[in-house]
## 1
Amino acid sequence: MIPELGQGMLLVALGLALAGAILSAAGGRTGRPALVESAQHAALGVFALITCSFALLVYAFLTFDFSVRYVAHNTNLGTPFWYRITGVWGALEGSIILWGWMLSLYTLIVILRHRERARELYPWALTVMLAIMAFFITIMTVAAPPFSRLNPVPANGRGLNPLLEDTGMITHPIALYLGFTGFTVPFAFAVAALVTGRLSDTWIALTRRWTITAWYFLSLGLLIGGWWSYHVLGWGGYWAWDPVENAAFMPWLTGTAFLHSVMIQERRRMLKLWNISLVILTFSLTLFGTFLTRSGVIASVHAFTQGSIGIMFLSFLALVVLVALGLLAWRWDALKGQGELDSVVSRESAFLLNNVMLVAAAFTVFFGTVFPLLSEAVRGVKVSVGAPFFNSVNIPLFLGLIFLMGVGPLIAWRRASLDNLRRNFVGPIVVGVVGAAVFYALGVRSALAVLSLALTVFVAATIGLDFWRATRARLRMGESILPAMTGLLARHNRRYGGFVVHLGILVIAVGVTGSQAWSVQTETTLKVGESASLGGYNVRFDRLDAAEESNHARVVGTFTVANGRQPAVMQPSKKYYPQESSPIAGVDYWIGLKEDLYLVLGDFTRDGRQATVKIQVNRLVTVIWIGGLILTLGTVLSVMPERRKAA
Amino acid sequence: MSRALRWLIPLAAIPVLALLAYGFRLNPREVPSPLVGRPAPAFALKTFAGQPVSLESLRGKVVVLNFWASWCYPSCYEEAPVLERGWQAWRDRSVVVLGVDIQDTDDKALKFVRDFQLSFPNAPDPSGKVSIDYGIYGVPETFFIDTQGRIRAKHVGALSEEVFRQHVERLSSESQGAAQR
């Protein structure tokens, strides 16, 4: 009964979303507030219904209702309590419903925040959001119904994909989907601006916080995904240029470009066309990402699902792209720029270059991801594009972007004078060069690593310089140092929030550089009592034990690890799940600021006398996660309400 | 931009969309190979048993060249018995099954050979040269080479009895026909 109730709710929600979209559009056209109000009620109803049906699905998971196919496929009697809840979004049907729920939540917040202001744009934005909502509910009711029944009812379920039994997998999809769905809001307002012809800065001002929020969640989703990959998959890396990762990375790149280019429009009234195009591109890429991961068109090491859903996504993607670009073409004359670039040496051009590089990076990632498809279509040859391509194309772009991160915020608008350049950049360049020399003296020999680290030092110096100057100005006004600094952060939170985000990115760049340059690993087979050593660690194989858990069996290796100090025990394992054909690694690791020790148990003999172990010393990986925290702080700072006016 | 031209903007998206739609038509199992119909690249390997084996030495026989790895679960595990049975049934009729183990460690590979009691020759490809020459995309992949040393068919994924018999019968009857003429 309960599953039917859930399915029924989704059907009603579909009707409401469609009706709401039409009502809101009619309201936008005729200017009658009553129509828009009805649409708001419909949106409210959609939110309530999806919330309830999501809750019913959770309930079905908690009560082991194996008569529901989705529950039977993704849980079994041994699945622990928390993973029964997170298992809800462990596969296709549930992730779509989670996605839909988030979208309805965003719609609700848009209504609460914007219904009073932005009278012209708002009804159309609501139309777009409800129409997209209707598409996702259609998927839920037609292509991936979460509540469809299984007959006969099995006594036990198949169980969750064991790789997803991890805390990272609780949060990763939530963050990622909040990012993906979040870009719906700027897109909706951009379309509203195109429809109404109100192409000034209103839509940009309205959506600034939305864009930052979506961008932040996308960043967080990528980082948590990296963390999951690092400590669950057992290959010791956090990024593999896998199509699924690329799918999330492309909108991140274009979204980052958008975040920066809107500042030019705000300040100089330039780039209207470009901004609209970027937001269309970003939103289309979020749809494309979902299409990629859910259709099985492009093979991936972790493409989770395949099915007819791909056709629906592709059709919708086509609809979105064609309608949005059609509107763009229709408003072409109004979008043509007013401002012109005064000089190549200016903040505008630094931002423009940043945009070109980000979009180029997004394009190469796109190209590398779909190239196998293209090659097969054109030449009938299957190829795979691997990390070497992505790295060799993107590393120079990323280094250039880091450099611009130092230049952009300090260089003057319009035309930078020689004096401006001297004042802002001579110091940081000197610091960067000194940094390079210091790293070289410390034994860093890889040219790429030296360059990358020197660039981060340069950028950090520009940020430090700017902050110091602003603080000094306040000190001269008679403030003492601490209030001067916190006052700056609070009053100019947008600027300094941005700087803090930049610092977070720099820290991540240091972590990536370090882990690529200095990590070491070895794989060796040890008899009981034998040891291996790597990077100052001595690893001794003590014994092998078998253990039984609620939903899997485990073989645990015990190793004594010493690095000059107190020896300690590490226990990497192999987990055998009945529903999986191959065992899953249980990585054991020591996480440290400078380096992580990472043990993966490989093959072993039946008598337990001998085992293969992979030992990795991964350097500076923790720094990446710290960068994520700094990024969070910066984002929070920059979306806080501005208090500059009070100053 | 003139009125008509600007409508080309949305049209620009169509090739990309068409390419993606094309993706649905594909069967990921089928990997067309430019090598089919061409002479098979020569190789000289040493089997796990220590015997040298080269394509040259197999001239005049139908060769079933199978690329596998012990980590390739489940496909390689599914087809291993098929290959062994095929080898047993056809070895007296000038058909050779040869396994090439790629990107693997010897101990795991030997365990695989032992577990399936494979009696046909199996050789590691430690430098990866042979798999590169044959353009191996993934494991398992199987090439059917005729008595003239030409690649006549390629199969991707686990081999079934049906596919094995079909190709081997064809190539082997051809060679008999040639011998009679």
## 2
Amino acid sequence: MAILKTLLYILAYPGFLFIFVYSTFCEWFDRKVYAHLQNRMGPTHTGRWGILQPVADFVKLLAKEDIVPERADKTLFTLLPVFGIAAVSTAMLLLPVWHYDLAQPSPNSFSGDIIVLLYILTLPTLVFFLAAWSSTSFFSTIGGARVLTMLFGYEVPLFLAVLSPAIMAGSWRLAEIAAFFAHKPLLILPNIIGFIVSVICLQAKLERTPFDIPHAETEIVGGTFTEYSGKKLALFRLMTDVEMVVGSGLIAAAFLGGFPGGVLLGFIHFVIKTLFIIFLLSLIRALTSRIRIDQVISFSWKYLAPLAVLQLLITIVLKGFSR
Amino acid sequence: MRIAAFLPEILRHLFKKPATVDYPFVKLEVPKDFRGTPFLHPELCIVCRACVRDCPAEAIDILTVSEADKKFKMIIHNDRCIHCAQCVESCPTTPKALEMDHLFEISAFSRWDLKKEWEYVKAQVKPKAAAGTPSAEAKS
Amino acid sequence: MKFTVPIGPQHPALKEPISLRMTLEGEVIRDADIRLGYNHRGLEKLAEEKTWLQNIYLTERICGICSHSHATCYTQGVEKLMEIEPPKRGIYLRFLVAELERVHSHLLWLGVAGHEAGFDTFFMYTWRDREVVMDILEMVSGNRVHYAINTLGGVRRDIDDLQKKKILDSLAILRQRTEYYLKIGANEPSFVARIAGVGHLSKEDALALCAVGPMARASDIAQDVRKDDPYGMYGEVPFEVATATTGDVLGRVVVRVKELMQSYNIIEFLLKNLPDGPVAVRAPRRAKPNEVVSRYEAPRGENIHYIRSNGTDKPERLKVRAPTLANYPATVVMLKNGFIADIPLIFAAIDPCICCAERTVTLVDGRSGQENIVLMSELRRRAQERWKKAPPKKDAVWPF
């Protein structure tokens, strides 16, 4: 009986089926908002309001021919998409939405799980780099080098910004941070700088405009993904979508007060708060143009990192006052 | 240099109707002088072959079916036509024997389906009546 | 460590096939080599087989964006050969369409520059406004591209008052949108960071390498065929030559937007002062033996057509020198010491119309300096010989 229940959890909710359905829904939402901001329609005809368009893209890619370049490292080339999906799906399980008891730790909610979540979210970036490196094509090598260079830019501000609500709440457990902010919603206001910095850093982690240099279409023909096709490319695209959901879930749990209220109400909170953050991400995407790699580094070290440190100082000062 | 200079504009567009026309469910209107495909009014053609001479793409052919009965056949190769309407302009009759229609959704599965043919008898040119000579009348 | 990377012939940044071989050191470009010929169609030879009237439609199809420039340049030259003078109303209408084409071409370029820089919102907005111009052109000439409004001796169609009013109304909308783009586009921080200081061409270099069009005008050279050698009615129309002093991609954006505003003024002047009368005169079938050079300011720069006739109804030689061809040497200089990330922007900033620039190929022997024009069959034979003799390479980076 327990085995059946675990199997249901892994396959249906909150397992692969739910991840697939929800992340394709979020991709549809992002594309629709982006299109309307640009005065055009976006996906319209596949399913009602085009809601099945990302699923259609996934199915179409599964049916295409899968070409592995001659000089590429075949084992690494084939295994990396699967490894990436595994990493982000595991990260999804650590969000405080499903089955946690605030009083005692459980395998998916324990003290220090915010650090573990941030660590697992670094894995997709390494997967991108290894995918680019093992493709041995000129364009993908440049893309891989750019992925790592960007990692030096946004990783530190992201960590600092996400850790300051943890300091304010006095705990390293995501569920407790979320509960703390759910009880005192006004405390988001001192954290607003950290919120903005973490949203921008999330945009950089997801490699979307203005930070989509590693797979800039007009310059290096696809960067990391140049040599991928067919099923592997479908899995990579799904991985980016799931990363988007996990990242916005992390920021919603840390800053916006999490997902309180039990099973049904918590789920509704999850949907609304992640869609809000995805709306902000689409807004940034429509607003700016791509910047060069050296400009990314200088921007993040000149503006983002100092702002994150400032946020940390504010949190520490406020915590000192409240004692 | 303003941060997010475009922001008010794009937020406003969130509530506007999209500029895209939902073709093919909504059809577009073409203006009245649109150059579509050429077609013939057979009763007006005097077989001067000016259109054949002037077509840049050699898309009009006039064949003689019977010299005695003055029957001719015009074939317009719409797969070669470049829709320039020079044939309409070169046609000397009034009203013009060739005219452009407004079709733009012209596609077929084979190029042989795009050729149109007309078989007709050559029309008589009415000579202009010289001033003050009532006997110079047309033979109809 | 230097290595050579090919951009093209197929590449998402290029709209047409061209091969740019860059020698790179890290992310910095050290040298660039441009190879042409992928879009060669044999138009100049085909022009010798068609009559003067049929050639208008042929020259129009040299390019899709600057189609009216080639057709007008050719028609001007042939009218000179045939010694006929089109009536005033015909000339005004011809250059009304010419200025509308300039508007559509510059709006297209603004969108393409935005897209190459990754600024897709700007791309969508400018191309939505370009639809206004395309609708006007469809109303005036019957087609959205390849207007075919020229004929030997004038234009083929006339416009009535209702159409005039529609054009003036659309102009008001376009003027407002263009001013908005100048105000915002030149101030959006990420966009300006991408295009400022990129692809710098100094004034001396621009003069020495014979840059034409907005490339030269952005390096502070006030050179415009409409002012230097007025053709048509440009002698009577008041307008200014738009220049910028920075000489980089931002300067070229500014020059093109300023030219847009000047074109709106010219169109308004033409519509308000349209003279009455016929729109065309009859043209003879044959032209006397003579040769003529016709110049025209296309949206990309100076367009030159050389036509020679020998008394028959077909031309003896037609030679087309498109503006993009004149800008290629300057592109090589601009690409040196730039970043890889800037290649699409620098190349897009010259507004490349590669199909305009593909004419006969001349082979220069590197050792003796001797030039000879080689037939296609000869080139094919040589390539097959070489292919048979060369051993198969496993790690070939570039097959030549």
